[in-house]
Amino acid sequence: MADRIWYGSEWQASRPLKIVHVGDFFFSLKKKAPCQFSVGGKLSNGLIRNGHHVIDFSYRDVARSSGWFGSRRMGRRHLFRALKEFLAFSAPDILLLGHGYMIPPSVIEEIRQQQPGMTVVQWNIDALFVEANAKDFAARHQVVDASFISTAGPIVRQLIGDKGHVGYLPNPVDRSVERGRAFALAYPEADIFYSCGNPARLRTICGRDWDMNEFCETLEERLPPSVRFAYAGVRGQPYVSGAAYAPLLEQTAMGLNISRRADYYLYSSDRLAQMIGNGQLVFMERQTGFDRIFSDQEMAFFSSLDELVELMGQYHSAPEYRKDVARAGWQRYYALFNECAVADYIIGQTLGTLPEEAHAWRYLVNL
């Protein structure tokens, strides 16, 4: 599988496209919104750097701006009207819907009737093992031209049926967003980073359900006292976002990437990109399937708690080796999944313009 650093490409569409991107970006009217590392913002960056005219439409903010007391739910009707009016005015080639839960299939159908020549694409990075997410994604898939989801494997087709095009969406990195280089630090401020929005919600790790406070306490007990943890939202530490969140990523040597489940092929929260994009050595369950794309010299894969503890101890005691593996993972992830490459892949897959050799990782996703 050839790796290419991708900033601009001869494989993109033959002419620049006008794209209205509906989603969440780097600004939000919601206080303390974790928008600094927004996937929507990174995808827009990639599309623009690939030469397209991209117009960001922050749908939640449009709804909040017209709802009573800033309520986006109370501003839904205004959102629908504003989006329809703007699309009629701008006449884009592509309507790209990111996490468009507030825009139901019925409204998408109305928009398609209004703009019959426009291609409609949805992308989503929410977990399909959450029933509401799966239901919403499947419903919108029936009224768009293409869907992209951060889960791979047969389960996606089982959910949405045989109709339409669907592709795997890697969590993108962007060097203008993920700016840290933790592997280059001689003296990182901490050794292991872990962030969790709700530690009491159980996560299945190596076949056992864990409260994450308990899990992290277990790691602390089994690892040498010299291992320093950087926590957010767990073990009594506050959950952080924005400017307070970035230093935890940039100044910590290693990161623990644990989603609620590991048995959905190639699924990970976007925190994976945030950690590896900032140069951390990432620990991840082998069951996720990422070991089909990355080697043990690029990420730290584990299949049991004992193996995780052993690997953490080994890398902690061998910082130069840890730096080499972290740097290799960072380089490969950027080669495959930088914002320009992922944006090019979405457009090329949708329009059917990708040569066979482009983005060779896509042959592993089994969709």
Automatic annotation (TrEMBL):
It comes from the Bacteria. It holds the Pfam family Glyco_trans_1_2. Residues 213-335 form the Spore protein YkvP/CgeB glycosyl transferase-like domain. This is Spore protein YkvP/CgeB glycosyl transferase-like domain-containing protein.
